[in-house]
Amino acid sequence: MEVINALGRRKSAIARVYVNSGKGSIVINNRPMEQYFPMDTLQYIVKQPLELTGTTASYDIKVNLDGGGSKGQAEALRLAIARALCKIDQEAHRPILKTNGLLTRDPREVERKKPGRPGARKRFQFSKR
Fold first, then answer.
1. Contact 7/83 with Cβ under 8 angstroms?
2. Counting C-beta atoms within 10 Å of the first and last residue's C-beta, which end of the chain has fewer, N or C?
3. What range does the domain containing 15 cover?
């Protein structure tokens, strides 16, 4: 099997994934996943597409992660892994991943701060007199 690559984004995080056949190791920025994401919830988010398709021990995954916070990075990685699995075997993996909502890019971004205001939507306190 040749190397399959895919891209995932969430907020300002970008995940570039390279999937090879192997024993199931996930390496993120040259560090093991357990070291990069020490929280169990983030590890669960990353492994979601692999567990749903039953391919946890089938592929080695190398990841370049950039930007954003830890949660955004984990969700960007989840999308990238799901897209890569669809490239590998579309008929088997796509229906499972699509019904669980793992192939949809979350479009929500941070709204920009407007000039003359304290935040994106917040206004200064109104004084009648």
1. yes
2. C
3. 4-99
Per residue in 15-51, pLDDT (tens digit) is 999 999 999 999 999 999 999 999 999 999 999 999 9
Residue 114 forms part of a structural domain: no
Residues 6 or more apart from 82 whose CB is under 8 A from it? 8, 49, 97, 102, 103
The token pair that represents 5 in the structure block: 């690559």
Residue tagged 């897209």 (tokens):
83
Structure tokens at 79: 């999308």
What confidence score (pLDDT) does residue 1 get?
Answer: 76
Q: What are the C-alpha distances in Å from 52 to residues 46, 65, 66, 78, 128?
A: 12, 23, 26, 12, 58
Which amino acid is present at 76?
A: A
The count of domains in the chain is 1
Rg over CA atoms, the chain: 18
